[in-house]
Amino acid sequence: MPTSSPVSQALVPMLVGYLLIMAALGAGLRLLARSKTGGPQAGSRTAGRPEGTRPAAGSRHGWLLLARHVAGTAVGGYLLLMAVVIAYYYGVARVAGDFITSAFTGTAMLTGIALPLWGAASWLTERRGQRDSDDAGEREARSP
Amino acid sequence: MVVRNPLVGYLIWALLFGALFAWEGLSLARVGSLPTLSDVFRVIMRYPVGRWALFALWLWTGWHFFVRGWHFLLRA
Questions:
Q1: A67-113 per-position pLDDT tens digit
Q2: C-beta of residue B42 within 8 angstroms of C-beta of residue B54
Q3: B7 φ, ψ to 5°?
Q4: What is the pTM of this model?
Q5: Cβ <8 Å between B39 and A28
Q6: Do A78 and B56 touch (CB under 8 A)?
Q7: Which value, to the nearest 10 degrees, does the dihedral of the CA atoms of residues A98, A104, A107, A109 take?
Q8: Which of A125, A137, A116 is nearest to A57 (CA)?
Q9: Cβ under 8 Å to B: A residues 2-21
Q10: Are A108 and A78 in contact (CB under 8 A)?
Q11: Do residue A18 and residue B45 have CB atoms under 8 angstroms apart?
């Protein structure tokens, strides 16, 4: 397959991206309509937060659950992308250069950079929220 | 055959993003019963496969824009 063809280089990725977004939107609309007609969140416009993903303040168990949830998501997403990359390389187009190596190492590097930063940001946000709620509790206790 | 003028590509991208933003604008303005993108992402993220797909998409975007083809810092 010629990789320089405008169809394979520009139009197909754009169409695939567009179809993926529209399919996600359609699936979301359908699931939302289904959850409105019945289920625990009937009538709610927004879906609920995944259970067990938010650590309770000061709870070691909560943080462990969150870490497991995030690690599962990261590993699953990484493996899924690698499967797609390999399928694309061997099934659609043999992209020149170190395509496969770059995919494996580049995405691993991005994950390695992003996850610790995200973890630190989450910890700081949680700590600030905890401090704010402690301050509010103290003010409430002092007020007559 | 390679398209030398990237204008068509830009136009198509602009159209796609325009459609996406129009969707989000209409749903935030509560026109009809369109879900916002946040609603959609929340629903998708309820399921492990949905979370994997979103993470994979995020990774691919980062890899595509910040790693592939770069020779500054990120690649030897």
A1: 888 899 999 999 999 999 999 899 888 888 788 998 999 999 999 99
A2: no
A3: -60, -40
A4: 0.63
A5: yes
A6: yes
A7: -100
A8: A125
A9: 4-6, 10, 14, 17-18, 20-21
A10: yes
A11: no
